[in-house]
Amino acid sequence: MVVNGACGRMGREVVEAVYREPDMELVGAIDIRNNGFDIGPLVGLEPTGVLVVRNLNKLLQETDVDVVVDFTGPDTVYKNMKTVLENKVNLVVGTTGILPEQLEEIKKIAEAQGLGVLIAPNFAIGAVLMMKFAAQAARYLPHVEIIELHHDQKLDAPSGTALKTAELIQQNRAVFRQGHINEYEKISGVRGGEFEGMRIHSIRLPGLIAHQEVIFGGLGQTLTIRHDSLNRESFMPGVILSIRKVMDMKGVIYGLENLITE
Ligand SMILES: NC(=O)c1ccc[n+]([C@@H]2O[C@H](COP(=O)([O-])OP(=O)(O)OC[C@H]3O[C@@H](n4cnc5c(N)ncnc54)[C@H](O)[C@@H]3O)[C@@H](O)[C@H]2O)c1
Ligand SMILES: O=C(O)C1=N[C@H](C(=O)O)CCC1
């Protein structure tokens, strides 16, 4: 397998996790920021013989690859995905910020090529459970606000997790605008972003990793469902599971919850 974005925060974690799996082999490491050095020492391992290169297309044309794992950035992920599928390779994507129309296009290409694509805005099992529980709660408590909190180097807002949570909640909640009909903002944006009448709030601070609270309000009560990723290792079991599963898939799965049976 190949890691794209290998020198980034998540890419390095994935490289290390793959080396811990006896039946997995890293055959390539891509990053536009860096070139030509061995990926091993960058992740605290001995030299591995896998050099970081910049050109994904060239690597895929010259190397036998089963799966590419992408943790790059919202501005580049769509182009990367197309390059991988054009080279007839399966794909696991953790990069967030993919637009709905881009997702539709990727679905068409993956289905036509018979390739597997697993896209998950959050690979932490606890986050997947948080989303599932939130969707369940919305059946009974439709007034809800989502507060996502991430490190201050994150580019996209709201987080992919918050959007996915809102989409899952929406399946169990009639569309209606929450709050007072005459409410107004004295500072623009202070009530957060609106998704089908729900509010999403994005907090960015150094020290944070990835956290989310889904707060429901009802008659005389509130319910808070919260998940915290305390380090990036929290995402690795989900990434490794996805690498294993994607090779037997055809088409796109969006969300790790679809791989985890009841
Ligand atoms: N799905 C999840 O569970 C999960 C978890 C954490 C982060 N993320 C997402 O993963 C993405 C990456 O996060 P990060 O914190 O690792 O970011 P980062 O900035 O630390 O790393 C991104 C890396 O990708 C490289 N890169 C950028 N464009 C590239 C391109 N075109 N080709 C090759 N390499 C390229 C950068 O040089 C950098 O090293 C973000 O979208 C983030 O939201 C998802
Ligand atoms: O670090 C990030 O960036 C993360 N992004 C994901 C998102 O946008 O939902 C979640 C995990 C961390």
UniProtKB/TrEMBL annotation:
Residues 126-259 form the Dihydrodipicolinate reductase C-terminal domain. (S)-2,3,4,5-tetrahydrodipicolinate binds at residues 151, 160-161. Belongs to the DapB family. The active site is at residues 150, 154. NADP(+) binds at residue 33. SUPFAM superfamilies: Glyceraldehyde-3-phosphate dehydrogenase-like, C-terminal domain, NAD(P)-binding Rossmann-fold domains. Residues 2-123 form the Dihydrodipicolinate reductase N-terminal domain. Pathway: Amino-acid biosynthesis; L-lysine biosynthesis via DAP pathway; (S)-tetrahydrodipicolinate from L-aspartate: step 4/4. The keyword Amino-acid biosynthesis applies. Keywords: Amino-acid biosynthesis, Cytoplasm, Diaminopimelate biosynthesis, Lysine biosynthesis, NAD, NADP, Oxidoreductase. It is found in: Cytoplasm. GO terms for molecular function: 4-hydroxy-tetrahydrodipicolinate reductase; NAD binding; NADP binding; oxidoreductase activity, acting on CH or CH2 groups, NAD or NADP as acceptor. GO terms for biological process: diaminopimelate biosynthetic process; lysine biosynthetic process via diaminopimelate. InterPro entries: DapB_C, DapB_N, DapB_N_CS, DHDPR_bac, NAD(P)-bd_dom_sf. NAD(+) binds at residues 5-10, 31, 94-96, 120-123. It is an enzyme of class 1 (oxidoreductase). One of its GO terms (cellular component) is cytosol. PANTHER family: 4-HYDROXY-TETRAHYDRODIPICOLINATE REDUCTASE 1, CHLOROPLASTIC-RELATED, DIHYDRODIPICOLINATE REDUCTASE. It catalyses: (S)-2,3,4,5-tetrahydrodipicolinate + NADP(+) + H2O = (2S,4S)-4-hydroxy-2,3,4,5-tetrahydrodipicolinate + NADPH + H(+); (S)-2,3,4,5-tetrahydrodipicolinate + NAD(+) + H2O = (2S,4S)-4-hydroxy-2,3,4,5-tetrahydrodipicolinate + NADH + H(+). Its EC number is 1.17.1.8. This is 4-hydroxy-tetrahydrodipicolinate reductase. Catalyzes the conversion of 4-hydroxy-tetrahydrodipicolinate (HTPA) to tetrahydrodipicolinate.
